[in-house]
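tool_call: predict_structure(chain=1)
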Amino acid sequence: MRGIYLDNNATTPLDPQVREAMLPYLTDRFGNPSSGHRFGEETRLALEQAREQVATLMGCAPEQLFFTSGGTEGNNTAIWCAAWADPRKRHIISSAVEHPSVLVPLRFLAERFGYEIELLPVDHDGGLDLDQLARAMRPDTAMVSLMAANNETGVLWDLERIGALCRKKGVLCHSDMVQRAGKMPTQADALPVDYISLASHKLHGPKGCGALFVRRGAPFTPFIMGSGQENGRRAGTENVAGIVGFGMACELAMQSMPETEPRLHALRDGLESALLADLAGVRINGRNAPRLPNTSNISFEHCSSAMLIQELDEQGMAISAHAACQSGDLDPSHVLTAMAIPETFVHGTLRVSMSRFTTREETELLLTALKAAVQKARTGLAL
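tool_result:
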């Protein structure tokens, strides 16, 4: 028994069916997909089957996708493509709550190449003012990069409206869809978005693999250059086993979504309602906004996130305070800071993120343990 894992926005456990699909490509089927013999042919066919599986989940044509090492590479690549598309356009719009894999390359463009980066604020529920977005776009705006779902709060943004505004102004649009993919239906081809980033390990696939959707006609310059794999879009021998696993993970996510999405909604809402009813000083961040069904960001007044996490970890329960890439940072996350969460709440924030393997029994055990941990933390802080 390894305990109860509720940190799925950081990474998900590998689905056993995904592992089985990968194993042959870690043993007997080891050929280079670029080779002309049968060993290369069988791995090349496996890559194309995986591309079709990812495309089916995303609602796009397989040729609109190429494989990457994950969401970070996808986000970086999309940003570079837009920056290199027209050197005269040196204004980029994003938000204050984006993942560091968007914010850091934008800061690099500002510091090294003089780009003007405009980060839109969010309201107390993590919502975005789309009228403000429309006003911010200018003739020299190269790109708008806005995430589909926030990795900490689960708050969803309306990509259809965002993309339509960009298209009306002739601005390229990118979305980090790493957290949303596999949790809610998506039709990428129907969205007016030019680039979409994905990551395998957020939907029960292996780490080190992802994909970037590139709309037909969108400007593209390879971020990784070399021998021309992935139809010249990303050089380097493909991670065949990882890609096969990613494809299977997408197929399984597609199959399970009709059952999983409403079930996780119910588990999340039940957990939040019970905490609000049983404890004073509880705030559900983003509660009044559309959210992912699996994500709950909860602040407990006069508590310490570190103390709560440690107490729960000792009971075999894994949750986090914010994004895994910032897990060593004791300061409040930039997302909660942007949402202006009150000081008495912000330092006692936890992120609970479920997966399709999460059970009602697990959330009930968490509820009991969490109520006790909060009461213990408040008593300790009061001494």
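agent: The two ends are 35 Å apart (CA to CA). Proceeding to next step.
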